[in-house]
Amino acid sequence: MARFISKNREEIGLSPDAYFFKGEKKIDQSLIRIIDYDPINLKEWKSESIAELQNLDVTGSVSWINVDGLHDEKVMEEIAESFDLDSLILSDVMETNSRPKIQEHDNCIFISLKMLEYDEEKDFISSENLVIIIKNHTLLSFQERRTEVFNPVRERIRKSKKRIRNSGTDYLAFCLLDTVLDHYSFTISCIGEKIENLENEILNRLNDSIIEDINRYKREINFLRRNVTPCREMIMNLVKIDSDYFNEDSLVHLKELQDNVNQAYDSLESYREILSDYLNIYHSTISNRLNDIMKFLTVFSVIFIPITFITGVYGTNFDIFPELHYKYSYLIMWIVMIVIVLIMVVYFRRKKWL
Q1: Looking at the domain assignment, is residue 338 inside a domain?
Q2: 318 and 189 co-located in one domain
Q3: How large is the average pLDDT for residues 188-206?
């Protein structure tokens, strides 16, 4: 499947609010995980029925409902009915190739962005769509497959960390977004370390594999920029949002998200410039080596021009050649040629051409 854009023929002409999964199916069956908590109590379970979750939003506790797998149209329709969500919202959830964005609706806030995962063994970056829907006492998160990305957040809830247990869905949303951005930074740092290690190889190993490495990392950086840049725009819009779902204390945390995503974006731009510099260094080094070879061949040719002239003159077939009959003519010719070569070599060295 294409990493930058993917569109199936079946999706053409569909209604915007149709429950139709647009993307790559990554797990066989949807999984729903729930964590319901307040400062004192904590409940955690898995559910196969959406009906038993519909009253969670009216309780005083915070309910985090995480749905792994977006392909089940029936589950999505039941979620829309149980939590009074517009069909357009769930249609956007099932659109895995959508651009990161934030939308404020009458009864919720919709946030979508890309999650990045770096496979160190394969040296490959993959992405998946993440949607967060914020309501009064309920936060719904939708992932394409089951991952352990948010386990640190779950552990903070389980260990009764005061800030997260005493806060609402706005702070929980911040924690999830912050975790995603931490993965951005980690992925960029892993790729960046490999890019920085290319510098010594460029100077010591000039072959086609260097160009392949540079081009491969340029593709990865472009892929990261495609995901980080719209996420940066989304975070900037989130900071400016004026909604009852975010209290004033959340503004500080949202600005922290903005700093993190700006740092990730600046790092990507730096590595992008570094790769361009590497490419210029490679071509400059190749050009310099070629110039050195051409200079050597030119000097070598110039040295042999007078020698070729002398041997050409005395290699003619004229009968009358007085000096040919002299006893030391052959020796004198060699002495003259050697002296000419030495004079030219000394001259070239003084000119620093050799």
Answers
A1: yes
A2: no
A3: 83
